[in-house]
Amino acid sequence: MVALVELWAPILVSAFLVFVASSVIHMALKYHNKEYRGFSNEDEVRAAIRKGNPAPGLYFVPYFADMKECSTPEAERKLTEGPIAHVTVSPSGKMNMGPQLIQWFIFAVVVSVISAYMASRTLAPSTEYLAVFRIAGCTAFLAYGFAYIPTTIWFKRPWSATLKDLFDALVYGLITGGTFGWLWPRG
């Protein structure tokens, strides 16, 4: 086994490299942009939401507090008429990506710590590159990507968006695995 403290370099370097790769994916490649659309009547939708003055949070339209309500004639009418929507309301104000970028980097560090933990419990010092790559990379891939699948199943998130996010997770897993294989303690 390898002490977790010995893996601080691959933890921080892999988190940094994933952060950079994510920036390239979202700012240069922009293949996620096609997943988002605006409403044709955006001003009316914004006015309707603003009129209700909802606090930041998750909202469902139509909303049912209990599954029993879903079988009432009124609920069935609403579901048939549509639309069915899942809406996230964020606080109003000027766009500031700083807090999200900091949280994303912290998340990347946490994923790298989890990858380090899995590798450190299963591999010895001087383990060959490919063995380290497999454990750390697979752990990172799972952590970065698999949470999207339940949101697709339950909240009807488009599979195309989830597949793109799984591709991103694969890239991040490869980066993490490669970094751990490269910086793994040799003795």
Termini Cα gap: 11 Å
Helicity level: 55-70%
H/E element sequence: HHEHEHHHH
The helix count comes to 7
- The value of Rg in angstroms is 21 Å
Unreliable spans: none
Physical arrangement of strands within the biggest beta sheet: 1-2
How much of the polypeptide forms β-strand, as a percent range? 5-15%
What global shape is seen?
A: elongated
Overall pLDDT: 96
Q: What class would the helix/strand composition place it in? A: mainly alpha
Number of strands: 2
Largest sheet: 2 strands, antiparallel
Describe this structure in words.
Strands 1-2 form a two-stranded antiparallel sheet. With 187 residues, the chain is mostly helical. The chain is built from seven helices and two strands.
Quick summary:
The protein is mostly helical.
What keywords describe this structure?
187 residues, mainly alpha, two-stranded antiparallel sheet, 63% helix, elongated
SSE arrangement:
Elements (H helix, E strand, L loop, with lengths): L7 H22 L12 H11 L4 E5 L11 H9 L3 E5 L8 H25 L6 H17 L2 H8 L3 H25 L4
Antiparallel strand pairs: 1-2
Helix pairs in contact: 1-4, 1-7, 4-5, 5-7
